[in-house]
């Protein structure tokens, strides 16, 4: 790819003031390479007003479609990359995640490797991973973006009683969960919220979804893996007649009369990897497997 053709759209976490030096370094390196950079509007305000960096030579955008970018860079943690994925929607533009957050399974480029990452992109030394998403439909109207790269969580509305979530898979009753909630995750999301409720870690290359309860009232209930061609239907019963639905952290209050239908989305998110690490290498690194804890 010729450098004069390259356009990069930049998204980022607008709360990491202490990580401002990484943003400054990234913008400088992109400028030195003569790359056309557009910065998402809210992130641009953070850079100019909070970090007080001069970005007059960079374009800003509200809608990603304005950018015609060849590459999207997400600066933050996995949560920032999830928001970036929602912002670009069904675009085929790949996302490169620079991790200034915590674990960083998706955004796995160390800030110290920013220069290396840019060079790798320019030289074509990278791979693209296609990550599947969940698509959500409901009998009740809702306003949040209906696709999840990580998970859809059904949660109780307040801190009082449990909720009952009846789950069907392809029209067949799975069970009725009495719990604080239920998580349906993609392989990508298996290292997120689902992992905190003892859900299994799933290879991102497998074609599956996981259904995992949150604080189940029964000791016999366990997470269940289903094929990603399955259609999962959920119905909720709650004392408050309401429940929370969270799609990659974007939440909406729903009435218990709503029926939720989940299935595989018709598009994927393309994640750029420059180190050619296998998922298992990332797992060992992030989870500390095999490290001497003495």
TrEMBL record:
Catalytic residue positions: 78
Positions annotated to bind NAD(+): 78-79, 83, 150-151, 180, 191-196, 215
Compartments where located: Cytoplasm
Alphabetized SUPFAM superfamilies for the sequence: NAD kinase/diacylglycerol kinase-like
Pfam family membership, one: NAD_kinase
Listed EC numbers: 2.7.1.23
Superkingdom per UniProt: Bacteria
Record's keyword annotation contains Metal-binding: no
Any one cellular-component term (Gene Ontology): cytoplasm
Cofactor: a divalent metal cation
GO molecular function, one term: NAD+ kinase activity
Keyword Oxidoreductase: no
Gene Ontology process terms (BP): NAD+ metabolic process; NADP+ biosynthetic process
UniProt KW keywords: ATP-binding, Cytoplasm, Kinase, NAD, NADP, Nucleotide-binding, Transferase
Family under the similarity heading: Belongs to the NAD kinase family.
Role noted for this protein: Involved in the regulation of the intracellular balance of NAD and NADP, and is a key enzyme in the biosynthesis of NADP. Catalyzes specifically the phosphorylation on 2'-hydroxyl of the adenosine moiety of NAD to yield NADP.
NCBIfam families: PRK01911.1 (NF002521)
Protein name: NAD kinase
Species the sequence originates in: Alloprevotella rava F0323
Lineage: Bacteria, Pseudomonadati, Bacteroidota, Bacteroidia, Bacteroidales
């Amino acid at each position: 790819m010729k450098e004069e053709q390259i356009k990069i759209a930049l998204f980022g976490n607008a709360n990491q003031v202490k990580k401002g030096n990484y943003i400054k370094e990234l913008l400088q390196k992109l400028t030195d390479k003569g790359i056309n950079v557009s910065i998402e509007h809210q992130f641009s305000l953070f850079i100019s007003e909070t970090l007080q960096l001069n970005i007059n030579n960079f374009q800003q955008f509200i809608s990603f479609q304005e950018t015609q970018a060849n590459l999207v860079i997400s600066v933050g943690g996995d949560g920032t990359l999830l928001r970036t994925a929602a912002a670009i929607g069904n675009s085929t533009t790949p996302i490169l995640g620079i991790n200034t957050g915590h674990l960083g399974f998706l955004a796995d480029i160390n800030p110290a490797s920013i220069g290396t990452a840019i060079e790798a992109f320019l030289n074509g030394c990278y791979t693209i991973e296609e990550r599947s998403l969940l698509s959500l439909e409901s009998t009740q109207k809702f306003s949040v973006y209906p696709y999840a790269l990580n998970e859809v969580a059904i949660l109780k509305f307040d801190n009082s009683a449990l909720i009952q979530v009846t789950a069907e898979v392809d029209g067949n009753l799975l069970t009725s969960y009495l719990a604080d909630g239920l998580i349906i995750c993609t392989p990508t999301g298996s290292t997120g919220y689902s992992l905190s409720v003892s859900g299994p870690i799933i290879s991102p290359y497998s074609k599956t979804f996981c259904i995992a309860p949150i604080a189940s009232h029964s000791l016999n209930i366990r997470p269940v893996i289903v094929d990603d061609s399955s259609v999962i239907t959920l119905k909720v019963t709650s004392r408050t007649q309401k429940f929370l639905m969270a799609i990659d952290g974007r939440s909406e209050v729903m009435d218990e009369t709503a029926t939720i239908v989940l299935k595989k989305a018709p598009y994927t998110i393309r994640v750029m990897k420059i180190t050619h690490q296998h998922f298992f290498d990332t797992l060992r690194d992030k989870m500390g497997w095999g490290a001497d804890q003495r």
